[in-house]
Amino acid sequence: MFGDMMGMMNKIKEAQDNVEKTKERLKTVLIDEQSSDGLLKVTVTAAREVKSIDIADELLEDKEQLEDYLVLTLNKAISKASDINEKELGAAAKDGMPDIPGLGDMFK
Length: 108
What we know:
Shape: rod-shaped
Subunit structure: Homodimer.
CATH class: Alpha Beta
GO cellular component, one term: cytosol
Helix content: 40-55%
CATH superfamily: Nucleoid-associated protein YbaB-like domain
Subcellular location: Cytoplasm, Nucleoid
Protein name: Nucleoid-associated protein DGQ38_10265
CATH architecture: 2-Layer Sandwich
Largest sheet: 3 strands, antiparallel
Number of domains: 1
Number of strands: 3
Strand content: 15-25%
Strand order of the largest sheet: 1-2-3
Order of helices and strands: HEEEH
Oligomer: single chain
Function: Binds to DNA and alters its conformation. May be involved in regulation of gene expression, nucleoid organization and DNA protection.
């Protein structure tokens, strides 16, 4: 009984380590997004951190338009990053977990 419990605890620890490694790796996965006309380009990580913003000079002349472009383009990039983040972390957590009846339903 205690052997099973220790094995289960080790599996949980492995899953936690795997999730932490995945979180670190997601900081290096870059997602590039741009406005439909290419005047604004952003790069974010899969950990949802903005890495760069490239703005065409013509957008600097219209503050309201620039703000709209930033909101739309950043939201698209963050949405893609969130999708990747959730899939990767869910898979990392599920892979290392012990086989406990009903636990698999948590990761669907």
